[in-house]
Amino acid sequence: MMAENKDYKFIDKYGFNEELLKEARKIYKERGFMRKMGMGKAPAITTVDMAKAWMSEGHVFTCDHSNEVCAEALKVLEAGRKSGVPIFHTTTGYIGERQWDLPRWDEKSALDISSHWLEIDPKLKPRPEEPVIHKKYASNFFGTHLAQTLTYLGVDTVIVMGATSCACVRHTVMDSTGYGFKTV
Length: 184
What we know:
The protein is of the alpha/beta class and about 180 residues long. It has five helices and five strands, in the order H-E-H-H-E-E-H-E-H-E. Residues about 1-15 have low confidence and may be disordered.
Protein backbone atom coordinates (compact mmCIF):
# COMPACT_ATOMS: atom_id res chain seq x y z
CA MET A 1 0.00 0.00 0.00
CA MET A 2 1.55 3.25 -1.05
CA ALA A 3 0.26 6.58 0.16
CA GLU A 4 1.27 9.95 -1.12
CA ASN A 5 1.57 12.71 1.41
CA LYS A 6 1.30 15.98 -0.51
CA ASP A 7 2.61 17.96 2.45
CA TYR A 8 5.83 15.96 2.64
CA LYS A 9 8.85 18.05 1.65
CA PHE A 10 10.97 15.56 -0.25
CA ILE A 11 14.63 16.47 -0.35
CA ASP A 12 17.36 13.87 -0.61
CA LYS A 13 21.08 13.77 -1.27
CA TYR A 14 20.50 14.41 -4.98
CA GLY A 15 18.64 17.65 -4.36
CA PHE A 16 15.21 16.51 -5.55
CA ASN A 17 12.44 18.53 -4.05
CA GLU A 18 8.72 18.97 -4.15
CA GLU A 19 8.87 21.53 -6.97
CA LEU A 20 10.75 19.12 -9.23
CA LEU A 21 8.25 16.36 -8.47
CA LYS A 22 5.38 18.76 -9.15
CA GLU A 23 6.91 19.64 -12.53
CA ALA A 24 7.43 15.96 -13.38
CA ARG A 25 3.78 15.22 -12.55
CA LYS A 26 2.69 18.11 -14.79
CA ILE A 27 4.75 16.78 -17.71
CA TYR A 28 3.43 13.24 -17.24
CA LYS A 29 -0.14 14.51 -17.14
CA GLU A 30 0.35 16.68 -20.26
CA ARG A 31 1.68 13.63 -22.12
CA GLY A 32 -1.34 11.53 -21.23
CA PHE A 33 0.04 9.60 -18.30
CA MET A 34 -1.29 9.66 -14.73
CA ARG A 35 -4.82 8.81 -15.85
CA LYS A 36 -6.80 6.70 -13.42
CA MET A 37 -7.73 3.22 -14.59
CA GLY A 38 -10.71 2.96 -12.31
CA MET A 39 -12.06 -0.18 -10.73
CA GLY A 40 -13.54 -3.14 -12.50
CA LYS A 41 -16.32 -5.37 -11.23
CA ALA A 42 -14.36 -8.36 -9.92
CA PRO A 43 -11.44 -7.41 -7.64
CA ALA A 44 -8.85 -9.47 -5.83
CA ILE A 45 -6.31 -8.38 -3.23
CA THR A 46 -2.67 -9.36 -3.14
CA THR A 47 -0.18 -8.51 -0.43
CA VAL A 48 3.50 -8.21 -1.28
CA ASP A 49 6.03 -9.49 1.25
CA MET A 50 3.91 -8.65 4.25
CA ALA A 51 5.57 -11.47 6.15
CA LYS A 52 7.18 -11.18 9.56
CA ALA A 53 10.63 -10.44 8.07
CA TRP A 54 9.31 -7.12 6.71
CA MET A 55 6.45 -6.33 9.09
CA SER A 56 7.69 -7.44 12.54
CA GLU A 57 10.48 -5.99 14.63
CA GLY A 58 13.75 -7.88 14.91
CA HIS A 59 14.71 -8.73 11.32
CA VAL A 60 17.15 -6.83 9.12
CA PHE A 61 14.36 -6.42 6.52
CA THR A 62 11.91 -4.79 8.97
CA CYS A 63 10.28 -1.80 7.28
CA ASP A 64 9.81 1.59 8.89
CA HIS A 65 6.28 2.18 10.16
CA SER A 66 5.40 -1.50 9.69
CA ASN A 67 2.78 -1.46 12.46
CA GLU A 68 1.00 1.44 10.77
CA VAL A 69 1.27 -0.27 7.36
CA CYS A 70 -0.23 -3.47 8.78
CA ALA A 71 -3.06 -1.57 10.48
CA GLU A 72 -4.00 0.18 7.22
CA ALA A 73 -3.65 -3.02 5.17
CA LEU A 74 -5.86 -4.86 7.66
CA LYS A 75 -8.68 -2.39 6.95
CA VAL A 76 -8.52 -3.25 3.25
CA LEU A 77 -8.23 -6.98 3.93
CA GLU A 78 -11.20 -6.97 6.32
CA ALA A 79 -13.34 -5.10 3.79
CA GLY A 80 -12.30 -7.62 1.13
CA ARG A 81 -13.03 -10.56 3.40
CA LYS A 82 -16.46 -9.15 4.25
CA SER A 83 -17.21 -8.82 0.52
CA GLY A 84 -15.85 -12.25 -0.44
CA VAL A 85 -12.96 -10.84 -2.48
CA PRO A 86 -10.19 -13.41 -3.13
CA ILE A 87 -6.99 -12.61 -1.22
CA PHE A 88 -3.51 -13.86 -2.10
CA HIS A 89 -0.48 -13.26 0.10
CA THR A 90 3.09 -13.56 -1.12
CA THR A 91 6.47 -13.82 0.46
CA THR A 92 9.93 -14.33 -0.98
CA GLY A 93 11.77 -17.48 0.01
CA TYR A 94 14.01 -20.24 -1.22
CA ILE A 95 14.66 -23.87 -0.41
CA GLY A 96 17.83 -25.28 1.05
CA GLU A 97 21.30 -23.99 1.73
CA ARG A 98 22.25 -23.81 -1.98
CA GLN A 99 18.81 -22.52 -2.96
CA TRP A 100 18.70 -24.38 -6.23
CA ASP A 101 15.14 -23.24 -6.77
CA LEU A 102 16.72 -19.89 -7.62
CA PRO A 103 20.47 -19.84 -7.82
CA ARG A 104 22.04 -16.36 -7.93
CA TRP A 105 19.39 -14.47 -5.94
CA ASP A 106 20.81 -16.06 -2.80
CA GLU A 107 23.94 -14.03 -3.46
CA LYS A 108 21.80 -10.97 -2.77
CA SER A 109 19.36 -12.25 -0.18
CA ALA A 110 19.01 -15.59 1.58
CA LEU A 111 15.54 -16.26 2.99
CA ASP A 112 14.90 -19.89 3.86
CA ILE A 113 11.33 -20.75 2.98
CA SER A 114 10.93 -22.75 6.20
CA SER A 115 11.83 -19.80 8.45
CA HIS A 116 9.13 -18.40 10.73
CA TRP A 117 10.14 -14.97 9.35
CA LEU A 118 8.39 -15.83 6.08
CA GLU A 119 5.01 -16.42 7.71
CA ILE A 120 2.47 -13.72 6.86
CA ASP A 121 2.47 -11.26 9.74
CA PRO A 122 -0.25 -12.15 12.26
CA LYS A 123 -1.27 -8.46 12.46
CA LEU A 124 -2.94 -9.04 9.06
CA LYS A 125 -5.00 -11.90 10.53
CA PRO A 126 -4.33 -14.21 7.55
CA ARG A 127 -6.92 -16.92 7.04
CA PRO A 128 -6.26 -20.54 6.04
CA GLU A 129 -8.24 -20.11 2.79
CA GLU A 130 -6.00 -17.22 1.69
CA PRO A 131 -3.14 -18.78 -0.28
CA VAL A 132 0.45 -17.82 0.45
CA ILE A 133 2.53 -17.84 -2.72
CA HIS A 134 6.27 -18.22 -2.26
CA LYS A 135 7.69 -16.08 -5.02
CA LYS A 136 11.28 -16.12 -6.18
CA TYR A 137 11.58 -12.63 -7.68
CA ALA A 138 10.30 -9.15 -6.90
CA SER A 139 6.89 -9.41 -8.60
CA ASN A 140 4.01 -11.46 -7.22
CA PHE A 141 3.40 -12.51 -10.82
CA PHE A 142 6.80 -13.39 -12.26
CA GLY A 143 7.33 -17.14 -12.13
CA THR A 144 4.13 -17.78 -10.13
CA HIS A 145 0.62 -18.97 -10.98
CA LEU A 146 -1.07 -15.79 -9.72
CA ALA A 147 -2.09 -14.35 -13.13
CA GLN A 148 -3.57 -17.66 -14.29
CA THR A 149 -5.47 -18.09 -11.02
CA LEU A 150 -6.88 -14.56 -11.15
CA THR A 151 -7.93 -15.05 -14.77
CA TYR A 152 -9.59 -18.37 -13.91
CA LEU A 153 -11.51 -16.63 -11.11
CA GLY A 154 -12.69 -13.88 -13.49
CA VAL A 155 -10.81 -11.14 -11.67
CA ASP A 156 -10.44 -7.86 -13.57
CA THR A 157 -8.97 -5.62 -10.84
CA VAL A 158 -6.01 -6.27 -8.54
CA ILE A 159 -5.54 -4.29 -5.34
CA VAL A 160 -1.84 -4.39 -4.41
CA MET A 161 -0.46 -3.66 -0.93
CA GLY A 162 2.91 -4.43 0.50
CA ALA A 163 6.47 -3.87 1.48
CA THR A 164 9.28 -2.31 -0.51
CA SER A 165 7.31 0.00 -2.77
CA CYS A 166 10.37 0.88 -4.87
CA ALA A 167 10.93 -2.75 -5.83
CA CYS A 168 8.51 -5.59 -5.11
CA VAL A 169 5.31 -3.52 -5.00
CA ARG A 170 6.34 -1.62 -8.13
CA HIS A 171 7.18 -4.79 -10.05
CA THR A 172 3.91 -6.40 -8.97
CA VAL A 173 1.91 -3.34 -10.10
CA MET A 174 3.71 -3.26 -13.44
CA ASP A 175 3.16 -6.97 -14.09
CA SER A 176 -0.47 -6.78 -12.98
CA THR A 177 -1.10 -4.01 -15.50
CA GLY A 178 0.89 -5.93 -18.13
CA TYR A 179 -1.41 -8.93 -17.67
CA GLY A 180 -4.36 -6.64 -18.36
CA PHE A 181 -5.74 -6.18 -14.86
CA LYS A 182 -6.91 -2.81 -13.61
CA THR A 183 -4.44 -2.19 -10.81
CA VAL A 184 -4.94 -0.21 -7.62
